[in-house]
């Protein structure tokens, strides 16, 4: 990111650019893929889940990822940035999966 936006060496600017560009798309695509491909649900079901849960997921992303980004760019050496970011991404993925599972209605067993 520092090479793409050379004038923005400030870690806050880099984090803001990341959050406004990639964060919403990443969460939208993850939730859509999880619902349609992994869980095998129809688009209408995934769409209703996105309408009801995407705003809160994105709000939580804007709470979580800026903190990760600031720690990453401000306090970690470049050699540890990918490792730290990947660890945070695993935690975020677990959050999204648990959030998705909690919102899917359970099928009644007879």
UniProtKB/TrEMBL annotation:
Domain of life: Eukaryota
Assigned keywords, A-Z: Membrane, Transmembrane, Transmembrane helix
Membrane topology note: Multi-pass membrane protein
Classification via InterPro entries: Mpv17_PMP22
Gene Ontology CC annotation, any one: membrane
Residue spans crossing the bilayer: 78-98
Location in the cell: Membrane
Pfam family, one: Mpv17_PMP22
Main location group: membrane
Family: Belongs to the peroxisomal membrane protein PXMP2/4 family.
Name the UniProt record assigns to this protein: Peroxisomal membrane protein MPV17
């Amino acid at each position: 990111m520092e090479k793409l936006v050379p004038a923005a060496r400030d870690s806050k600017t880099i984090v803001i650019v990341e959050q406004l560009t990639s964060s919403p798309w990443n969460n939208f695509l993850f939730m859509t893929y999880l619902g349609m491909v992994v869980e095998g649900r129809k688009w209408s079901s995934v769409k209703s889940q996105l309408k009801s849960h995407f705003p809160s997921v994105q709000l939580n992303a804007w709470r979580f990822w800026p903190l990760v980004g600031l720690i990453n760019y401000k306090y970690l050496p470049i050699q540890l940035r990918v490792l730290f970011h990947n660890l945070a991404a695993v935690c975020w993925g677990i959050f999204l999966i648990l959030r998705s599972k909690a919102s899917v209605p359970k099928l009644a067993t007879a």
